[in-house]
Design goal:
Length: 224
Amino acid sequence: MKEKILLRLKTACGKNTATTDITLNKWAEYLSAKITEESQIDAEIEIIKPILDTYDGNMNFVVADAVKKANTVAPPPPAPPSYAPPSTDEPSWFTAFKEKQNADTLELKTKLTSFEKQKQTEEMVTEARKIIYSKYKILPSERALLEKSLDLTLKVSTFDKVDDLVSGVTAQFSDLRSTLGLSGVEPVDGNGGGSSTSKEKPILENLKKNLQREGKLPTPQLTT
């Protein structure tokens, strides 16, 4: 009897029913306990048909809703928050501070270099004087002229070696002496002898006359 009831249930529900065979089989077991004759099957099925239709409708709704959700395009995931890298630009006050520090450092370096150069020159001049006075016959009256030669030589050129400075001063000193009508500078003799005072007077006289001719010294008036 159960098989006949199950067959009639499937026919009543139709081919497109959403009710599963498991559910229909449960209903067939339930009805087979009540039905004793085949003629009662249709009547009993008519009684439970609204329940089957309701169940079938609910299943169709659930399936349709699930299909709808499955076919719905999921929205794209939210974009990750934008990340702005930290700015590598330094603040203006720091740039100004660095520029001032660089300028101050450059100024200090320049002053230090100038100081070291000046000190080096002073030491070289002192050594050059010693060499010139020990190597050449320089009369006391010519020392001012020698210092003038030294000053002119340093203004015209720069020197890194004492020997070069000595050569430059000596050449300049000889030129000034020649301009004044004096002889060239003489080296000391082999015994280390220096200048003699006996030669100083003629040199001074010649220098005095040259300066008088150039109008740098007054010419004495002759008296009668």
